[in-house]
Amino acid sequence: MSMTSEELNYLIWRYFQESGNAVSALALQDETKVLEFDNKYKHLIPIGTLVNLVQKGILYTESELLVGHDGSIKKEDADRYGKDFNLVQALQIDKEKFPEIQAKGRFALEHEAEYYDEQEEEQQRQDEEQSNDGFIKTLEEFVKLDEIISCKWNPVSDEILACGGRDSVVTVLRVDVSNKNIKSKIELRHPFAPSSSAGKTTNEVTCLAWSPRGDEIVTGVENGELRLWNVEGKLQNIFNFHRGPIVAIEWNENATHFITTDVENITILWNAVTGTALQHFELRDQSSTAESLGVDIEWIEHDKFVLPGPQGSLMVFQMDEDKPIGKLLGHRGAIGVLEFNSHSRMLLSASDDHTLRIWRGGSCNSSNTFYGHSQSILAASWIDEDKVISASMDGSVRVWSHSDNALLAVSMADGIPIFAARLSKDKTKYAVGFMDGQITIYDVSQLVSQLRQSRSSRAPITIPIFGIFQNVKDANCVYDISWNHNSNEISVAYSKEGGSIISL
Prior knowledge:
Number of helices: 8
CATH class of the largest domain: Mainly Beta
């Protein structure tokens, strides 16, 4: 006596049809061969067959109570047979007689733990033992800030934070960590001059960049003006060649030069000491001159840098050279992220084509291409010389391996778009800001430890969460995130109200 899975599927499909569950029947019809059975056997199977077989199964289970394994007739239990015998009682008796089959992997129910094998089950136990307390921390606001749209901590001081506002003003704050308040404020003010090219009536601060030594900061606003200030707030120089909003500022490693780019795809190399513009690049896409080629730029040497080019290309330039010394082809969309790993000498890029690529020095072809994100990638960083972490507007955070050319770990946020993400200075935490205002801190150091212990597993694991902070205002999107030097605090800029400094 036996019944195949296809036969059972057909009986279930017939039951759906008979009970009026048309949508469920259609879904089962698309995934199985029930129509083939229906064409052959529908005239042989009466209405209500599935229910009838289940009722007979219940009766069979009840009859087993009367007969022993040796065929002897047991003494009748008058109390038991005086009651109605139902499905729950039959299942209970069957469970007592036969051990329950543990649900794993694809057979696990939604509320049950899913493991691919016994090794991953053991790994899960070890991960729980290694966690600090087994719970995700609820993070608290350290200091409340005024309304801001961008923020950058000083790279060498935990007390200094620069915040960009909507009114042409950058506020440099000195934070008193022990007393949890603001000790002092310095305003770095651009003259209010609306952008003539964009027709804007505002002049927001669009970009901030501290020098590597933390003693100077470049501020860029919507009308294209750039200003260089020292850490005490004194104006050092003014740069006025851009005519559109600044989208990226990047210093070289010895703080002698910086490059800037705007929404009109104009990039300028500046001498930070003399304040002069050394080179001017207009890398326009002839097929679509109005669209931005990218929103990031990167130095790969103290005198070499990479700029987004037409049709997703990357153009490598050297100081005092008007023409590119290299061209990297592969992306098919605007460039969202560029990050150079000075130790491995490899360049990471991410694009609106939903892919990440890794480039080796001396090669015009990418050594790795990572697919998996379904929307634009807005943040990506090197965790170490092998692993890369990325965040996308599809709501996912993913960790990739350069050497294995594979996805190592993933975290999904139920489709809530991610608007900002930053890796901490010590590369142990990853802060992600969502459209609904939530901040999630992922524990990268714990993830690396888990990956080291589960090398035999080919399936991506879940990225562990260190803590969560939820803004109380509804639909308060996260605009920007910045880590302090010691990687124990983050600053957050929101769309609707004042920013926050959050302590870990």
